[in-house]
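Hi L., both proteins are below.
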Amino acid sequence: MGLIDYSREPKSDIAFFDIKSFYASVECVERGLNPLTTSLCVMSRADNSKGLILASSPTFKKVFGRENVGRSYDLPFDVRTRKFRGFIAKKNRIPITDEYVRFIESWAKRTLIVPPRMGLYIERNLEIQAVLQNYAPKEEILPYSIDEGFIDLTKSLNYFVKSKNMSRKEKLDLVSSKIQHDIWAKTGVYSTVGMSNANPLLAKLALDNEAKHTKTMRANWSYEDVETKVWSIKEMTDFWGIGRRTEIRLNKLGIYSIKELANTNPDILKKEFGIMGLQLFFHSNGIDESKVTEPYCPKSTSIGNSQVLPKDYIHQRDIEIVLAEMAEQVAIRLRKRHRKATVVSIHVGFSRDEEKKSIDIQRKIDPTQSTHELTKHVLELFRKKYSHGAVRNIAVRYDGLVDEKYTVYSLFDDVEALERQEKLEKTIDQIREEHGFLSIQKATALFENSRSIARSKLIGGHSAGGLDGLS
């Protein structure tokens, strides 16, 4: 039996919408195809046999067994020839029969592989937001990501469903159904809805653990369902906020299920996890006092960027050009947040053909937001560990952020020179803010393997228009 008196807990009528296979569904609709029956995947660098699978339709996932995110070379067929690749089946221990080969190649020929069009996806997202705003004001809608979001319908239910004979649970289901239909009528894409007459947490759990498997693509979890549904979640990592590392730590405490977590002494959890332990305790009991109108904004302790290179970079000079560009881009974001970094980290991932362990290294530094200083540290870290090898992905991150007013000088620093450098960088930031990032560029941006100009034309790291690739 639970330890919570739910009669004393706040209640709201929440719907959590998730657009089914959003990117892939939009691409299907644009081609006049059914998103639920078409085999399609959205692949970054769709003209490249080593492309990254960003999204895929339900049929694609069912046929080829691929989840987001994966690589094209993990598919059981060649993206160019659409021919069966036996070594992938062997790798996954799938029995290879003539029937299986014909099945894969038949679907491969019918499968569309398309490049991402982030501009288009943002347009569709705005259309969906407009639909939601027909049912609640902006301040009662909280986008969770480009394809997910909460809507608080507490104040709207009686307006849209005036019947006094229906419960709030029934009204919430009816209004959510209407919103599903309106989204489909406007955009052609299907949505799944997790609902709760209690709080946002239970709506999200309802979506992840039940709604995706129902005919209506809707499910409601409220306080009365905690013991029968929340506690019955089979995998602890299917619970909001529990990853693999947290699960291992819970296992060490003898906790192997959500029910056991909900009935654990909260003092034990607090001792192991701090405040997060108490949050785990309350969440496992279905308690969440957050509000859609007052979303929790975690304090960011790091700023970073990463990218998959369009090809293998084999020359150290080219790799350093890209690292320096990324160091600058992240430094700009640092200054926009009025922060300084005290830790610099880099990740350098090698080409799949290299079979080399990636480089992950960091160092503590005096607080700075200077592009010059941060770039120097990034390149020094890289040169310290890199000897040779083709590189395919890179990441730069600044951690341990402090207020920009915090400054440390040594006796050997030229304070006037540092202040001049700071004013110069902020002036460049202002010019770029007014006239665009490309208004001021270093000469290295003109080099063939520079990524500065190309990435400035991307949205979310991907092509805005998606004009190239396979179809």
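That was the first. Here is the second:
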Amino acid sequence: MAGKFVRKSFADINLADPFFDSLKADYPGNENSRGFVEWFHNKAVEGKCALVFEDDQGVGAFVNLKPGEVEEIKLKDGLSLPPAVRLKITTIKIDERYRNRRIGEGAIGLTLWQWRDLEIDEIYVTVFEKHASLIFLLEKYGFLHVGDNLNGERVYLKSRRRLDFSDPCKAFPFLSSEIDHAGCLAIDMTYHDTMFASSELANTLQERIDISVANGLKKVYLGSPYSLAFEVGDPIFIYRKYTGRQGRPGYKSCITTYCVVTRIVNVKENGREFISYDEYRHIIGNKSVYDDHELKSKFDTLRNLTLIELLYYGYFGAGNNVNWKWLKENNCWPGMHPMNFRYSREQFEKILREGKVDVSNVIIN
């Protein structure tokens, strides 16, 4: 089974893998750009690394970033973008066998998280018009087409100074400075560890069961809440509820992750269906941890069923997760079901800081 994205040395990546054939064909080398093979060998000699996703068939995805790029971006018709410090996505490719498996979405997410952490204002990538699925993803996550370069590629750029906060995908991974509250969602540890694969816990081995759920940014939660303290567009924390038998739950149950709510659908209430099973299944797609049998069972047997779609905005990481004991001792555990928590802006930032998040680099104007 395929694993997760890992950083790997160019020298250890098999350039003869058929995955790279299209890149070799697209970039044979000309007066405007180096050939892909020459560029790859140079990176190997320099000891550089790339982000790679592999399975038993070989390379499934490949992403390479060049931080601190300051070159002028020359465009057709004599136009250009002036020199500025930018993060350049030099290469991004997802194999066709992973179409509709959401690996591309995960790759974009990992790239934008690194852009945020580098605190660089702009990120850009060049892509040929024929790569429609990649262009769709770039536009979905806020990249704007600013022109075509001299090699005939479309240039897509995203700037943290010009974010569209009306759309959580386009603003990703930044939150608007106008937020004034946040919610909370508790998820049993087994489901949590599949849905939020980057939210690793110290001293915990997490199974990664479904790569579509684990590597995509959109997640779907299904439950039967009596009420919700959050709405579409609100940030929420994800609380990993420890259900094991070892250790003390107060230390093992913890907030690991923050998301933005992108959709809430009231599927059933008191046994009354508001949408059909087919519509329910279509909305979920491959964003849930449940298989088809479990999804059908929930739809058929639960009298109340709510679907909550989330965008995975960020995580605290091993050793930084905020446990129940700290939350209770620091006035961040209101003493009711987490779905009814309504954190103030002050509490939201307080928990982010305890999770070692640079709040000023996440919540921006």
